[in-house]
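Per-record layout

source: Oleispira antarctica RB-8
name: Acetylornithine and succinylornithine aminotransferase family protein
length: 293
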Amino acid sequence: MLNPIAADTYKTDDAYLMGTYTPQPIYFSKGKGCWLTSDDGIDYLDAISGIAVTNLGHTHAAINAALVEQTNKLWHVSNTVHIQEQQLLGEKLCHLANMDNAFFCNSGAEANETALKLARLHGHKKGIKNPLVIVMSGAFHGRTLAMLSATDSPNARHGFGPLVEGFLELPFNDMNALDNLGENKKDIVAVLIEPIQGESGVRIASPEYLNKLSTMCSDNDWLLMLDEIQSGIGRTGSWFSYQNFNLKPDIITLAKALGNGFPIGACLASGKAASLFTPGSHGSTFTGINYER
Ligand SMILES: Cc1ncc(COP(=O)(O)O)c(C=O)c1O
């Protein structure tokens, strides 16, 4: 039964939560900027930022005001109508990232799933029956089954087989491996890479490696798909980490700090990748596509 005590003083344990985490014995009750306060009054510097999420900190007055304004105006509509705010956000992100259009979703894994679907459409359009996407050792792309299959983590995958096919894992930052793709090369349609790997430690791809990948993508008509879910939204001194390199991606995926804690993801596309979806080919309750684009 629900306890009638006010939410900020009510404590239970994790008995009713699926046991997927082993949390620290701390409850946070307040946050301001980059500081958190636990319910026993201790202040903590929020160096984890909700796992690369709260780039703008906690309880910023402007963000609070924007949320309150919207909740007083209108809640959810649906993807059967135009959504002005979504159009504005799409335009803003496309200008910042030099991309053509956006598909919004709820999480990073979903943004990457969207990218994967675009890669497969791109491949099928070229007559490739079993399209392959290059992924990297040490990569983390999310926990849906397809993204788990693109992620190099035996622990995260354990017990969830069979995995989704269609990925070719190469050693991160290894130029030689790119020269030795062999028979696989004819089926490759895209590369999915974090320019800066997050979950396997801060591992930065070398500019030479990214340039070579980018050249191979244009020479072979593969999509260059950058997972900027952890590295994007101002975490490297530019809006997106790829802007520190000389790259022109076909697809960028975003989430985490995009919403500062509000669950939102986005897949941005440019050029040929931006016209692969057609009405009805992809969607979800909260995605709100503008079907006329
Ligand atoms: C690089 C990268 N891609 C994808 C994801 C998955 O994002 P989400 O947890 O929002 O599904 C993460 C999450 O840590 C990530 O770091």
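summary: The mean pLDDT is 93. The chain has eight helices and twelve strands.
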